Structure formats: C-alpha cells, structure tokens
Amino acid sequence: MTAPSRARKLAEPVERLFGGIAGSVCGVRTEAPHVVLTYDDGPEPGGTEGVLAALADVRATATFFVLLTRARRFPGLLADMVSAGHEIALHGVDHRRLTGLSSDEVERRTRAGRAELEDLIGRRVTWFRPPYGTQSPRTWRAVTRDGLVPVLWGPVLRDWQDVPQADRVAGAVRDSRAGSIVLGHDGFAGPADGVEDGPAPAVDRGDLTRRLLGVYGERGLVGRSLGEALTVGRQYRRAWFRR
C-alpha cells in the first residue's frame, strides 16, 4: 500500500466519526450568490466601526465571532453589531488555544462564555470558532457537548499580516465561490486577551471590507452572515483538527 493510500485509510475512521453532520461547519452548499463573511477578535475601536460602515453601505450582513475579553470592555460596539442586524457568535472567553487546556476547562469556559455572551446580546448563540482554528477531537467534544457548533473557514483576508490591501483582497477573491466562509478580523488579539502575537498589523479594516465587497459585487456575489446564508442553503461539514 502506498503512503497516500495508507494516509487515506487512516483518515477514514476520523472522517466517519467527525465528518458529515458531526464535523465542523466549513462552508454552505447553496445555489444563491452568497459568500459568508466572518470577523474574529472584536469588538475593537478603530476596526469594528469601519467594518460595520462598509457592510452597511451595501446592506451586507456578517457573523462576528467575538471575544468576551473585548465584549466586556466595549459593550457599545457589541450593541452596534446587534442593532445593525449582524449575527453574533463566540470566539472564546479569551484568545488562548483550547488545545493547551484540559477537556473540563474547555467545556467550563465555553459554557460560561456562551451564557455571558447571550446575556449581553439577549439572543441565543449557536456558532463557535476556536482561537487560531486549533482543535482536537477532545476539544471538539468539549465544545459541542453544550450544543455549540464549531465553524471554521475557507478563503482568508490575511488581515493579521502586514501585506498590501490589494493582495489581501485578491487572495480572498481567488479562493471564493458561492457558499465560501471568508475569514476576516475586526480586531487583533493581544496580552489583554491572554496571548502575545506581536504588534498589530497596519490595516484599515473598513477599507478592506469595502474593497472586498466591491469585487464581490462585480462578480454577482453578496456578503451574508452564516445564519442568513443557511436560510437558503445547507451546512457543509468536515473533520478539521489542527494544533
């Protein structure tokens, strides 16, 4: 048996257990011209406002995966997201990698974080995105035990790196199609969020969203939140594990 064949054979039990309806949401199967816009690590002054304004200009909607460390500090921005009709999801109590925590700690943190976020916005929270997209079968079980659904992504805006805006847009658009879940950020996690990822990149997040939506519009695509896209589509799930 060749090495690729062995790899596929070893992956089959994982896919059977965690793929399909039991996996993580990685896209939407849809015939509508919807691209799912998602933003992580907010709310953050100087970033969230620009993103909200750009979305409002074309009546697009998005799903914001918020950090509780930020939501507590900037409740007004969180309220602005809700009042503008966007979907709120949980990114974490802070931005620490879940794979470095015990299963009990992951379950406790996500349950408490969900309850606190629901109290803040007055709505049920369904979606969860693990910080850095890192999860193991163990952390996946801990997160889903309380009913949260992990959501990952496809195209990325690379807005955590210092690269030209045009390159960010071109890369995301190149990999986008109807039903894609696009990863963007309206903030940048730091020490107050339990991590140290270096200096924040120089990026105008509102301008980036505006440029992206402009190119999507030229291609007949519109930005939608995950929940809204799923009103006319269905979830695509697969196993996604990385440390």
From TrEMBL:
UniProt-recorded Gene Ontology molecular function terms: hydrolase activity
Keywords: Hydrolase
InterPro entries: Glyco_hydro/deAcase_b/a-brl, NODB_dom, Polysacc_deacetylase_ArnD
UniProt superkingdom: Bacteria
Protein name: Polysaccharide deacetylase family protein
Gene3D superfamilies (alphabetical): Glycoside hydrolase/deacetylase
Residue span(s) of domain NodB homology: 33-211
E.C. number: 3.-.-.-
Organism annotation: Saccharothrix lopnurensis
CDD domains: CE4_NodB_like_6s_7s (cd10917)
